[in-house]
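Quarterly update from the structural biology core.
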Amino acid sequence: MSRAIGDRYLKPVVSAEPEISFTERDPEDECLIIASDGLWDVISSELACEMARECLREGHSEALAAIDLNGSPQTEDEGIGAMYPTKGLMATALLTRLALGRQSSDNISVIVVDLKRS
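Predicted structure, tokenized:
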């Protein structure tokens, strides 16, 4: 689904009709990754799932602590929990940074939903 304002020449190729699909969930599903082409064009589903799974299982590891959406280093005064209050948000940030690092040429939107969070 997309929208265009002021781009009449794109009207034939831009659709306001959403693409809807239904997927039966398995009780063992760990997470749901909702993302735009900006992610999927440069990262495989398998890699995205593995990275999200590791973030959700491991949480605030040192390797993930260095990732900041703005690319700025974290100071000692800032706790990783303040920057990423949930493991899902940390997974979102990591996948976004990876897509940027792989030179994605499209807009990048990522949401990681932790399906096991109690």
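The mean pLDDT is 79.
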